[in-house]
Amino acid sequence: MAEDKKKNINQVPQNDSNATVESTESIDFEEVYLTRGQLMWRAFKKNKLAMFGMWVLIIMYIAMIFADFLAPYNPFTQNLNHSLKKPTTVMMKYKVPDLKTTMAPYVLPEISYIDKLDYTQNFKTMLFPSRIKVKLSDGTELAIIDKHVVEIKEDGTIVPKYLPKGRKLDERFVLAESIKLVVRTIGYAQVDGQWVQYKDETEDLDALVFGVDDKILEQGRNERITNSRTARSFVAQNEGWKFGFFAATEQEAMERLTAVKLEQALVGIKYYDSDFNEHEISLDEAKIVSYDYKFYPVKWFVKSWGPDKTDPGRVGYLFWVIPLHYHLFGVDNYDNNEYVSINIFGADRYGRDVWSRIIFASRISLTIGFIGLFVTLTLSLFFGALAGFYGGLVDEIIMRFCEILMAIPGFYLLLLLRAVLPIDLPSSQTYMLLIFILAFLGWPGRARIIRGQILAERQREYVEAAIALGFPDTRIMWRHIIPNLATYIIVSSTLSIPGYILGEAGLSYLGLGIREPSASWGNMLTAAQDVYILEKAPWLLIPGAFIFIVVLAFNFVGDGLRDAFDPRALG
């Protein structure tokens, strides 16, 4: 109990000649008596690493509780368009040939594809037309605007909403349900030294353009993979163009083909009105004056996945009870473009957001240590107390059993116990089994230490006095002996939690713990076993960094608690 005490000392110097007071000095002293808890907190704060570890753990557990709010995407939803997608680049500048302006943060659509020549994973940024302004042959100008990038007010007026800053609506424009670019693809093959045109076909690009290129519409060229529409195809590459060569057999293609090139030219614009009637403007009768592409703003508190979306089987909940409609950050995907996403830590091979999965995986990796520790403490206190307090035959049986378990290598025993269990258990049951397996491995060593400390405490006078007064054994144990072991129990528990986290991560990494589609930091690292994946997608190792940071933080906090409970550190 704190007690404050003040002392005032007045010093009055006397003058021998006139006996007057020349000066008066008042000095205040304040003595503060700290409780044991305050002394322990002061000792803990002196350890800077312990304070750092404590704040790291606080942040991680807050993130675990609010995982649904912090995750911009459903951690179970797959999007193969973003397979092994690298961390998203957030842009701030909008650039087209006649307009360059600074924008609020936004992202562009991206797609992942397999190169058909070398079978490597590649990414392309995509441009979807949002406004194309053309000058017709009669001199009039017309702007074709995608209806998703404007806002229609209640009075019927139309104003730009997702057009770049500084872009106004033209005097004459039409709102289109969608805009498509019509491209004529022409292939040539060199046969007997002569270039022969073997394919002339008009294709519809569905308004997607690979590669962010300001001159894409001016040049009328586009890098594109043309898929075969026959039974067999031969893929060749020359001068940077990629396409599928159509032939009856691969042998026929090889015999005919010595060199190949592909040319593409923009020949027109196709759009659909509100009734989905098709309209096409040929570039023979119109000239492109300017254009804009769609951008997708990055915003705070975005309504994305949740109870109001098309995934009723998995919704976001706040505190596991309240349905959650908004999330901390995300992309305003106003037209539900499947190629748009913001992945601050990239995506895995199934296109799932790595950040969202890390946050949800923390619920398993961060709770398994405390639950496992509770089970371990219960077993070690029970058996250690029995062995230390009663001794004799009870002590011999319990200690020999502990030594047998400790003689078996822990990791191999872990694999053995997990292997005898069904491999196709649901993740919830697997989670509980992992807890009990890890607890089963952890209690013998702690039970031996508790047994030794109880043997020492049992010889003390206060315990002998309690026995002499006739108190029950359980009361002596839990009211007198166990409280004196609190220092060891708290410190050792804090230092042992990382062992449970690493144990679960090891089992899940080997495929014996938490399994897909559920996420834990261990099974997320399973995707990083392939050398090819490590070269192309090193961001899949980020869960390992979280394991490292959390384990280090627990060790720092354990060291700080050890200093706080040390009587010599209390001052």
From TrEMBL:
It holds the Pfam family BPD_transp_1. Residues 1-22 are annotated as: Disordered. Belongs to the binding-protein-dependent transport system permease family. The keyword tRNA processing does not apply. It is found in: Cell membrane; Membrane. The chain crosses the membrane at residues 49-71, 366-389, 401-421, 427-445, 485-503, 539-558. GO terms for cellular component: plasma membrane. This is ABC-type dipeptide/oligopeptide/nickel transport system, permease component. Keywords: Membrane, Transmembrane, Transmembrane helix, Transport. CDD domains: TM_PBP2. InterPro entries: MetI-like, MetI-like_sf, OppC_N. It is a multi-pass membrane protein. Residues 362-558 form the ABC transmembrane type-1 domain. GO terms for biological process: transmembrane transport. The lineage of its organism: Bacteria, Thermotogati, Thermotogota, Thermotogae, Thermotogales. Residues 9-22 have a biased composition (Polar residues).
